[in-house]
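Lecture 7, part B: from sequences to assemblies.

Below are the input chains for today's worked example.
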Amino acid sequence: SSEPKECATGQASSKVDVIEWTMITTWPKNFQGLGEGAEYLAQKINELSGGRMKVTVMGANDLVPALEVFDTVAAGTVQMGHGASYYWKGKLPVAPIFSAVPFGLNAQEMNGWLYKGGGLELWQELYQPLGLLPMPAGNTGVQMAGWFNKEINSLDDIQGLKMRIPGLGGEVFKRAGGTPELIPGAELFSALNRGRIDATEWVGPYNDLAFGLHKAAKYYYYPGWHEPGTTLEAIINLDAFNALPDDLQAIVKAACTLANSDMLAYFTEKNNQALESLVNEHNVQLKKLPEDVLARFEALSHDVVKELAATDAFAERVYQSYSNYKKQVYDWHKVSEQSFYSLR
Amino acid sequence: MWTQNSPWNQIKRGLSWISRFSGKGIAYLTLLMVLAMFGSTLMSNLFNINFIWLQESVTWIHAAVFMMGAAYTLQHNEHVRVDIFYHRFSARTQASIDIAGTLLFLLPVSVFILMTSWNYVMRSWQLTESSAEAGGLPAVYLLKTLTVVMPVLLIIEGLHQLMINIDKWRASPPQSSINKTQERSS
Amino acid sequence: MMEWLPFIMFALVCLSLMAGYPVAFSLAGSALIFAGIAVAFDWINPVLLNASFNRTFGIMNNQVLVAVPLFVFMGIMLERAKIAENLLETMARLFGGLRGGLAISVIIVGMLLAASTGIVGATVVTMGMLSLPVMLKRGYDESLSTGTICASGTLGQIIPPSIVLILLGEAISSAYRSSYGGDPVNVGDLFIGALIPGVLLVLAYMAYVLIRAFINPSLAPKAEHTDSISMAQVIKSLLLPLILIFIVLGSILAGAATPTEAAAIGAAGAMLLAIVQRQFSWERLKDVMFSTTRTSSMVFMILIGASIFSLVFRALGGDHQVQVFLTEMPGGVVGAVIVVMLVMFLLGFILDFIEIIYVVVPIVAPILLQMGVDPIWLGIMIALNLQTSFLTPPFGFALFYLRGVTPSSVPTGKIYRGALPFIAIQVVLLILLGVFPELATWLPEQLGD
Ligand code: NA
Ligand code: NA
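Predicted structure of the full complex, as structure tokens:
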């Protein structure tokens, strides 16, 4: 491919062709944390490339609906997307492992597995036949279990509980006796507020406060057992990526890594402020899910995640890599992070 | 001009049958859609039971109905027109507009939808794409296939409409007198 | 030149619609022709047009819009099973002894019918066929009759539940989501927000009719001999449909059901009502299913056509141009809202509700919302504004449809004159709503917290 001509002198700046990319996202354009993260990523690519690239962000529904991001980037309609791999479970059943699985790895551990433990290679191998390059590009940290209008004192209270909880978490919840509901995003607030559902999960304090969920429900339960450190993805059309010169390819990848760590830092900061505001200003009742409920969810989660491995040989490899890493890192983190946390 | 069994009329009948059969066939599902959604609502509110696949199948039926019904609707001339002027035109002018509209708008749009959908549908079949929801429906590729079926049905009905309007055009005199149009419209 | 392209396209597409070929295909087809020219001149990147598939699939997979065919099913069932007809007949007999009573019945039935159909043409035609002959036979003034029928026939759009409000709610909430992250407005909010303005409108219509009848009794004479009506008759043809509509609306207001679920209750309830009234048969059910399919296809083909149109408009940079135009509007938010309302009012002459919602709202709503406009207020303003547009001579759709079912002995001028007072009522309410947004936003807030 012909590279745009560099201007050695810097002045007589004839035409250096700016490479214009569009990034579509599964979030609304200004969505707290996640949409902001996509914007940050675009901005970093623009900055690091010294203006040789210009990435424009389009939010969900601007060009295509949220859940069409994967197919749209794969088709080459636009060059990149920002989302989360668990949305693509219907196309690639094993994909959720690269974002979040119930009782799985947290943010720090996901980064360990993806960057250093072989996870990213597997992820790229999974998307490669579809013409996509995935990169970690954000992390929410541990999320919250969600907003409830019924108190959960034991596993009995889960029976028949109507909760909007999608994905693998929803499957676990169903097997534990709950009733997962399919409620469109726009209907969610009123559905919870007016009692059509009993509970919903969302993200964490920062997003939940902005959404106003505290106005619709009494209890705010933790921990986010179903999303213990959701990795968000940048997906890049491979043809578009391969057409970039080497240095711009490296810049795009570096910007993703920056976005990945920046979002976690951002959420850490915003979430603790928002939680404080929720508890102290909005008098939200913060509660921990009972032990028997969490124990049941954990047991069921192992089954549900293991079933992902059964889809094909590749899924089996992903599952093995993930669970081996998980076993090792848990042993280490038990004596490091976890024992330290328990001292505080 | 042509006998009842001329190839022209036989083709017309054949094309017409396809639109009618597909449209009326899919229409029966509207009852199923009402009952399924009603049942799902009752179960969810009275017994706290909810089947994601049932809710999804209501959405799918809805999509199938309007996608498969588009050609049949065209056959019944029930796609909204801006008829501020159209209803005052002579039969011959109306036929000309419909011929031009079919050739310039309907057929190109159908071909466009067909072409832009094809790769997505093939990809979905290759991946045997299913719903991303736990307990959702398998075979999302069938739902996506509707984006190919709809334009094909529209092309078939478009050709049918083209033939009908050519007949209409030929049957009405070039200098359609004002009296005649008024007779027809009253 | 480039910045005018999207607007030139908009104008050309509007022109092509005037020829009278079905709107869904004219919208998409003329936009594609324009896109072809733009591609040939290298003005736009053709690959963007691939997104058409993803947008179409998004429409197919949209759970909120499933409410549309369900409400259509309900409306057509109520109509075919003669429930609407019986309702009008019973009301007319109940209020027959009152001066202007027949017109009052028409307004009330229009309001209730509104509950179900909501497609402009269908309601006006139904109302016109059912009530105009009766009114004229009774000696009602031609202008007063046609005006009342036109206005009542368009009430369907603003009185919830209505398909128009569902589509509008979905379009605005999706615009809202793309401007802000949280607390989105939804179809239910719009239904609730429409209640007070809708009721005010109905009351104003009634007041107008009563005042006219009081001042000049010959305009709306009471029935000479009112035949008695049995309680059983009233319950059967009046109370049961009322209960159904109450359940449908109530379940949304109380939060027991989403609009889609309420629509399913309405559709199943309409079938039950038809069975109870011995109006149910396999042939009739088939008729309802076939009609529902055609109406639903008609609506959703427009959505798909409009989505192709707005994709090309966007690819040409149109959304950006509109943004520049509206944000630089003198008078700030107020100026922008007035311009948008004026444009929509004018478009209401050539386009139906559905087309405007899916062509114009996605372009302007995100900008207005970002300027701080309340989404519920905006939705109700749009609904009221378009309803007014459909009543306004010489191009108003409602007048046009009514002309089609009015005997030629009634001159068009009389139909136009009849509509004028109702347009005045509409305009007054629009101004009131503009000055006091609480008329639309207060009730949703009360139910919201
Ligand atoms: Na979540
Ligand atoms: Na209505």
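Note for the exam: The radius of gyration of chain A is 21 Å. Keep this in mind when comparing with the next example.
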